[in-house]
Amino acid sequence: MTKFDEATQAIKIDDTTYDVCLDPGYAIGGPLNGGYLMAVILRAVVDASPFEHPVSTTAQFLKPPVPGPAQVRVEPLKAGRTAAFARATLVQDGTAKIEGLITTATLGEVTPDYHDDDVHPMPPLDDCLRLPDPKPESGMTLNAQMELRFDPPTIGWLKGEPTGRPESRAYFRMAEPQDPDPYVLALAVDVLPPVVFSAGARGWAPTVDLTWHLRALPAPGWLTLIGGGRMISDGWFDEEVEVRDSTGRLVAQSRQLARVGRG
Asked: Which Pfam families does the UniProt record give (predicted)?
């Protein structure tokens, strides 16, 4: 069991209740990362499902949970021959923090009938850049759990040179050696800096709603994250992320609605 597996484990109490312990190592300046929280919820949902993989997840982030004990309450909605549907709620101190609707199925190792190869070209890994290590007092503990190597223009905002477009692109893998799986993908779709940084905005940008789809089981190796947005308006922005595995195959895609940071 890796550190990430341990940090996301869900212990079954009864048919619909799982105990979890939210790990402080996945914080972004205080709040816990949304992708990490989805991975915790999905551990419980998949355990309660007759199928192996979370193929579609929609999560609404009601209130930020804090590190420590919590519960995932799973409500099965329907199970068919190829998919099952469930509602899941992350509860802490008697308060619902995240509500999710999850579809599970079992994916096979198959060749896609159609695969879109039209993806933004990434520079070689050695030409990509790391973000500076955060100061201990920043509360950015998530950085220590993963490696990100960025396409240089998309972190120009660090030097006050944003591209003016909502975008972010990087190679990603866990800091502890681990082949990517669906739970790592749940984290991966939400680890890029908010794409509005590259458009000139700053500050914590809380996610309100995030939907992501597991499209295929990833091959071992680095993942490629391609993030972008379509509109920034009235304090809101959208963010779309494609995740490609080391073979270039699309393995996950997400869209979220979030608030623009307040500086």
From this structure: 4HBT_3, 4HBT_3C
Report the C-alpha gap between 89 and 255 in whole angstroms.
Answer: 20
Length of the chain in terms of residues written: 263
93 token code pair: 């101190």
CATH number of 3-107+122-259: 2.30.110.10, 2.40.160.210, 3.90.1300.10, 1.10.3470.10? 2.40.160.210
Report whether pLDDT(263) > 70.
Answer: no
**Phi then psi dihedrals of residue 150, to 5 deg:** -95, 145
DSSP percent split of the chain into helix, strand, coil, nearest 5: 20, 40, 40
> Could you tell me how far CA 166 lies from the centroid of its own chain?
18
Tens-digit pLDDT profile for residues 35-48: 999 999 999 999 99
Residue 59 CB burial class (10 angstroms; 0-12, 13-18, ≥19):
buried
Q: What angle do CA 74, 95, 52 make, to 5 degrees?
A: 20
Strands 17-22 and 68-79: antiparallel
**Amino acid residing at 44:** A
Closest CA to 197 of 156, 258, 143: 156
